[in-house]
Design goal:
By secondary structure, this protein is mostly helical. The chain is built from 18 helices and 2 strands. The protein has one domain. It has a two-stranded antiparallel ribbon. Strand 1 and strand 2 form a beta hairpin. The longest helix is centred in the middle third of the chain and has 28 residues. The radius of gyration is 21 Å and the shape is globular. The protein starts with a helix and ends in a 10-residue tail after the last helix. The relative contact order is 0.12. The C terminus is likely disordered.
């Protein structure tokens, strides 16, 4: 199992390896697909060698998140015509790879300590990728018109979304034990990189989760200190000011801002979803772009800011469009369980990986109100992993410290 674990660490460390693309025999692929394929072979060899193959196969039934996403995809594919087959194949491949890697993660790392260690490896990989992005842009490659940090990605918000869960993770780890200064250094580095993406969703979402952790963990002690209250109030004011001046004010004063674009996307999405069939069944896996391009001018009554929009920039709309009303029901159920798990956590209970995953999943749901943490290779892997870790067998005693 050692080789399996080492390769899994490698996969988590290089979550952005899908950016290294090439062809094999004329078929397009990328390094991430090769690594996950190799991971499958090594994992299969390990469970056969350890005589756990039958039990591992039986365990598939416990992974209801993965099974639900796969089942909804099959159900949608059977009932909804696919117009853009290339996007369908691409997004279907993302989902399968995320499900496979998450399954191997859960079945390989059985204890909370192992999962913490694995997530830390992924966090260090994210930090180093953030540094690479900074050098990439500083060298003059793929520089955004507003100089937001995005590296080789197509949008700064994706980089912010990728870095933020690990920023929250290392910040919480520092608060758990302030003697370990390396966690503070990692958190500071990731925080600076996250700020450079100018993602208000990342900034506001991470602040909410960290404050929630402090509130739950310290039983209000942090908030009873006058100095702490002043610091927290100042940070909240700065975040609110940043959101207003960087997002809201440009929307009021100019004809274009990210909020203006989102307003057009949500208006068009509302127009599409008025069709009963689209509400009940969705528009198909990865098919939102096709429907958006057809309907945006009709919905708005004028030329849009952009005809090319991959996702509806809202997690509720995303699940409806991908999977229909059943997808929305699944999302709402997961959110309900997620919030229950967080607020049922008591101070005297151990802070295991299950609680951490619930906090990070809540961040995804919060940020998901204005962006879509789905169908990007790295984000989808993290999201499915967190959904499984937070909602799958919450009472499993093997995960207690």
């Amino acid at each position: 199992m050692k080789i399996n674990k080492l390769l899994l660490y490698l996969n988590l460390f290089f979550l952005q390896s899908y950016l290294i693309r090439f062809k094999i025999g004329g078929f397009p692929t990328n390094l991430q697909e090769i690594l996950i394929g190799l991971q499958c072979l090594v994992f299969l060899f390990a469970i056969i060698k350890n005589k756990t193959f039958i039990q591992t196969i039986k365990n598939i039934s416990k992974h209801w998140i993965i099974l639900s996403l796969f089942g909804l995809t099959i159900f949608s594919t059977l009932l909804v015509p696919i117009e853009n087959k290339l996007d369908f194949i691409r997004h279907g491949k993302f989902l399968v790879l995320a499900g496979i890697l998450t399954f191997i993660f859960i079945e390989t790392f059985k204890t909370s300590d192992e999962r913490f260690k694995a997530f830390k490896v992924a966090g260090i990989g994210a930090m180093l990728f953030g540094f690479f992005c900074a050098f990439y842009n500083l060298l003059g490659y793929n520089v955004a018109h507003d100089y937001r940090l995005l590296g080789p990605l197509d949008a700064a918000v994706y980089l912010g979304f990728y870095l933020t869960p690990f920023f929250i993770f290392f910040t919480i780890e520092f608060f758990k034990d302030t003697k370990i200064k390396s966690n503070l250094l990692y958190a500071m580095a990731l925080g600076i990189l996250m700020l450079a993406t100018v993602s208000m969703g990342s900034l506001a979402g991470s602040l909410i989760i960290i404050l929630l952790y402090l509130f739950k963990r310290n039983d209000n002690k942090t908030f009873k200190s006058k100095t702490a209250r002043i610091i927290i109030a100042t940070i909240c004011l700065l975040v609110a000011s940043a959101v207003f001046y960087l997002k809201i004010l440009p929307t009021i004063q100019t004809n274009y801002s990210s909020l203006s674009e989102r307003e057009q996307i949500w208006s068009t999405a509302s127009h599409i979803i008025k069709t009963p069939k689209n509400l009940l069944l969705g528009v198909g896996l990865g098919q939102f772009q096709e429907q958006y391009a057809k309907n945006v001018k009709i919905a708005l009554g004028h030329e849009p800011l952009d005809y090319y929009v991959l996702q509806p920039h809202n997690i509720f709309l995303l699940f409806i469009f991908q999977f229909g009303i059943l997808g929305l029901i699944l999302l709402l159920f997961c959110m309900k369980k997620n919030i229950q798990n967080i607020f049922n956590w008591k101070k005297n209970q151990p802070f295991d990986f299950h609680i951490l995953a619930n906090l990070l999943l809540l961040y995804f749901f919060i940020h998901g109100l204005i962006d879509t943490p789905f169908f990007k290779n790295d984000l989808l892997i993290i999201l499915v992993l967190l959904m499984e870790s937070s909602l799958l067998k919450a009472s499993d005693k093997t995960l207690k410290d």
